[in-house]
What does this fold into?
Amino acid sequence: MLAVKLRAGVPPANSTLIADVARLSAGDGALFAIFQLSSSLLLLAAAASSFQAGPGLLKALARRTRASGERVGILHQALGRTNAHHTPYWSVVVYLVFAVVIVVAAGGREQELVLFYAVAVFVSFLSGLLAIAHFSRKEGSLRPTIVNLFGAGVVAFTIVVNLRRGFPIASLIASALIGGVFAWLWIRQGRPRGIAQAEREMEREFDPGGATDATPT
It folds into this structure.
């Protein structure tokens, strides 16, 4: 609505629609600079969250033999090793390498990355909502099930709209391939269970004096 009212139009290659709307609303002065700074900090926080969640996932999926002799996890055990700050350093390295490769492949053009990133993010949202709806249904909670299924429908519609552009289909295929590899590794390892418990046990093993009630990733 703001873009139409302010006649923002299609942004040039070195800008975004949000930045253009902010410039047309506040001018090129200090207020616009503050807006740009706030946007940069928001993106930095999002990147920090990603670099916490990504390696955390690899850490939770790392292979480990529990005290009972049961094997859990599907990835190499090195990905679960942590330092004194509970950081899975090898997982961070792996995640960083993949991130660098993707950025370099896109030539640093964030607008092209967004086309693929949006689909991958919404596929994650869809998976999460469907999983929550499944658990709600198993617990007999009708209202949460309906709410989550409605949310899943909205997200699925968004994915379909993005896929109509053509290029984001590659992101959907990549997500399916990664999920397929994880499923294959899980089956190959004998369908191990108890990832959350393995996370807590890893915290105790690699940081014996640390918190034993660490929240699983």
Remarks:
- The first helix runs from residue 2 to 6.
- The chain has one domain: 2-206.
- The longest strand covers residues 64-65.
